[in-house]
Amino acid sequence: MGYHPFAVALEHLTFSATLFAQFVHTLSTILFFEIAGVPLILVWLVTAAIATTLRFGFINLRGLGHAIAILRGQYDSAEASAVGQVNHFQALATAISATVGLGNIAGVAIALRLGGPGAMFWMTLASFFGMSLKFVECTLGQTYRQVQDDEIADVRVVGGPMYYLSAGLAEQNLPTLGRWLAAMFALCCVGGALGGAGMFQVSQSYGAIQQVMNVPRWLYGGLLMVFVGWVTLGGASRVGRVAARLVPTMCAVYGAACVWVIATHVGQVPGVVSEIVHQAFIPQAAAGGFLGVMMQGFRRAAFSNEAGVGSSAIAHAATRNPEPVREGLVAMLEPIIDTGIVCNLTALVILLTGVLEDSALADLGGSQLTSAAFGSVIGWFPLVLAGAVLCFAFSTMVSWGYYGERAWAYLFGMQRVLLYRLLFLGAIFVGAIATPAAVVDFSDAMFLAMALFNIAGIYLLSGRVKQDLRSYWVRLRAGDFEGVETAAATTGDAQASTL
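Above: the chain's sequence. Below: its structure in token form.
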């Protein structure tokens, strides 16, 4: 007598779940394998950030003024007719909306609790080196982007690591390696979007909302699913427009509250800054010693601004811009905003208010500790902070929903994008009502694995970016770019002379 169809299906499902769990465990073992107490993935990210900074002659310093000039619109007249769907600011806002999130609120508190004040020094330093990594990957994203004429969705210009890994390595006679790296990156990107951006973000943000408002899980998940669906179904243009409005607003509100708290403790600021620097090099033993403090800072910075993960290159590839190097310079500003400013403001609020030393608050989670810090000065702000957490989570879901869609389209074509969108929206609802540990672990592993494949390609393709950067500065000095002010040309002349 044969098996009942339901029993056969259940058996296959159980077998698949076992394989899935084994795959997640194996991948996590590789990613978090420790070398002298330091996880392999962290060594991979930090080494790449330092290497690109040195290879490109500290472009994160030399190109900073020019990057700000680009963002201010100094070159808009030259780019008005360029192919693309969003402008520089919208692409930057989309990328920042994917990185500025719960890590800036909860992650900083965790870093301070585990590594002490000195962790902020190393977090800031890591973000400085991460700027160069962002420059390279987003320049490559523009260099190898593709223009498509597709009526299925509002997508005409596509790009990102999956495109520059395949096309760029094919130019170097490594087509098989390029296709393999691109496919693996895209698979991991889809997994990270469904789990990390879909399930995890809605689950974590619900915890903050529940503290100030009793909303049923199913209703919260349903509402987020509707709003995220409205934005993501509108394609890259709508994602860019929403991000361009939401990101500055939420950063301004959060930043203003941080400045207010800091202002009320302004006399303590020099002492706290001094303590951060002191503890970075002479930490307390409880914080894990010098190496432990440094690793906490590097770890949080790497996971905060996503330098090396390659996700930002997907957003910047859709920019109206004829110069890839120019887009890389704009992208370079992301770690400054995400880690250098937002994370440091959060750290100052926590350290100045003294909640870190309050034993009564020792059992609070990261976001709860940050909320308590604000609440000690602004009694009503925890309610606003809950709203900020919601906005941060929403913007992350919107941007990563778009990233996952681009990766899905690369693998399966635009004809099957609707299936991905339904899966992504379903993941949001599921994340609100349940938090399956295996799925969360899987999404985290996928997110970090993206950096493995992306950085491998960056090492092989950095020579192309080096040549393009040298050519860009020479042409800027010669005044080849329309709408360039004299000051910018002078800046470019000085920078070109250093190459």
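The mean pLDDT is 75.
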